[in-house]
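About this split. The held-out portion is used to measure sequence recovery: a designer receives only the structure tokens and must propose an amino acid at every position. Recovery is the fraction of positions where the proposal matches the reference. Here is one held-out target exactly as it appears in the evaluation file.
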């Protein structure tokens, strides 16, 4: 039961991240419509790439919900990338510690949940193997 609950919570949080990235796409499109871009071609390319990223994160959430290992793996990579962006936001000439914290805190929570879900899935797989042997 715990394994299922941890994985479900992780899936829901990863899904919320995917929806946040999708909201970023909407914001990018609004900026293009409003003429707030220097290069329309670059803005379109960035919006398309962001949309692909949102689709991937949402797919990870669905896969985690269904108990598929590739979803957990992809979501772990996503959290590590978010933490790298947070580190970049916290350092440098234009550091924004509040933004870094807002990015890092949920990513750390989700990362811990995903590691627990991976450990529990491994334990369940070993128990199935032992039962069938």
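Reference sequence for scoring:
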């Amino acid at each position: 039961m715990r394994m299922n609950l941890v994985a479900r919570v992780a899936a829901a949080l990863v899904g919320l991240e995917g929806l946040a990235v999708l909201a970023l796409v909407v914001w990018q499109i609004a900026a293009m419509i409003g003429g707030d871009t220097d290069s329309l071609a670059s803005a379109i390319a960035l919006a398309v790439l962001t949309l692909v990223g949102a689709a991937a994160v949402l797919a990870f959430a669905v896969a985690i919900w269904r108990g598929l290992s590739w979803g957990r793996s992809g979501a772990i990579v996503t959290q590590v990338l978010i933490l790298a962006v947070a580190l970049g936001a916290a350092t440098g000439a234009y550091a924004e510690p509040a933004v870094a914290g807002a990015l890092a805190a949920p990513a750390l929570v989700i990362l811990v949940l995903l590691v627990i879900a991976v450990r529990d899935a491994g334990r369940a797989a070993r128990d199935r193997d032992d039962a069938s042997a």
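Annotator remark: The helical segments are 2-33, 40-65, 69-90, 97-132.
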